[in-house]
Amino acid sequence: MTIQATHTFPRNFKWGTATAAHQVEGGATNSDWAAWEKLPGKINDGGSAAVACDWWGGRWREDFDRAAADGQTAHRLGVDWSRIEPSPAAWDEDALDHYRQMVKGLRERGLEPMVTLHHFANPLWLMEKGGWENVAAVGHFERFVRKVVKALGDYVDLWCVFNEINVFAYFSYIDGAWPPGKKNIVAAFKVARHMLSAHAVAYRAIHELQPQARVGIAHHVRPIDPAKPEFALDGWTAKLQYRLFTETIPQALHTGRLLFPIGRLNERLPELAGTFDCFGINYYSRYHSAFDLSQPGTLFGRTFHPPEVEQDHLGLNELYPEGLYRAIKWAAKFKKPILITENGWGDVDESRRTRALLLHLRQLWRTVNFNWPVQAYYYWTLVDNFEWERGWSQRFGLYELDLATQERRPRPAAKLYAEICKANSFSAEMVERYAPELLPAMFPG
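The structure corresponding to this sequence follows.
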């Protein structure tokens, strides 16, 4: 026998989904990612975002209708810099109006918009000038931010400046899987440093234009645990990797001190201190790390998922819901409102997708019971989208996308999430209907 109980979230808690411009819009031609996709072997399945979810063609309307009908009250979306500023200081007013209609459309449907100003993609002209390795990118970005805030500010007062600076720097400048495809850790640090400066400049520009705005970042948090906790070198490299990947960026924005484990160890940047009003957590999985002298590019740590843990069909993520709890507990020290700006599960196993949603929300519910200031949850993502170097091989959507027809079909997780959004809670009865195997652990007798 199980307990018939309900896990209720705070009044006015925001439920939504998150998307990114390049991943859903289609039709982009002037960005580094649009060019990258045309290069042989760069995308896992040879796919592209040429059509994507056809939001630039207007299908955002039907997807926003779905989100509203499902009881969602918020949506995080991005703007594509390369569309808005196709050449330096030259603006495409039609593109700005397109985004204006989108955020207005969210408001009309009762969805609070959160706009991400930079989500991995860059204009080709910026990359020709050295991209984020060139400090001039800071000024270019400020000009872009001011233009967007002036255009969308009537409908938007919640802004995410950068999505995952740590992930961008790693995959673009250390791993090389993303444009510009470099493998240079010094360049990665330079890029992160310039993006931090751009964040601080954008933060002040937004508040100058819109004093009541809330401005934050979306930061990828990934626990990294030692492969063998009893082995000191595994513990050392796991801690070092975690500090660099997870702690460096937010600590710099919190304290104004940039601490890298190599290079300039302690750079004081007081202009960075306190430049976020809310903190966005993107959480998916954790890594285990084993000391390995052959891996200097990852600070002598080989990261992996042990074979015994439950993983997605590609072996990219471990199903580790406790990591969301750990991420929120860690972020609570900043004493700022917390938004779960991304959390989701991409898999061909629909039962695992549904279980992942319930298990992560159980951890989220635990955190609000400690009065940690979590105010919103944005599931990644609303409809299957283009997943960067993975193409269409990893699908996170609540709604399944048929690329050939653009038809959307609700997955079981979409129906479950709609019930949760409408009730602002989830119950033992919901778990029994959608994932009965979880009942003994989630609602024990």
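The radius of gyration is 21 Å.
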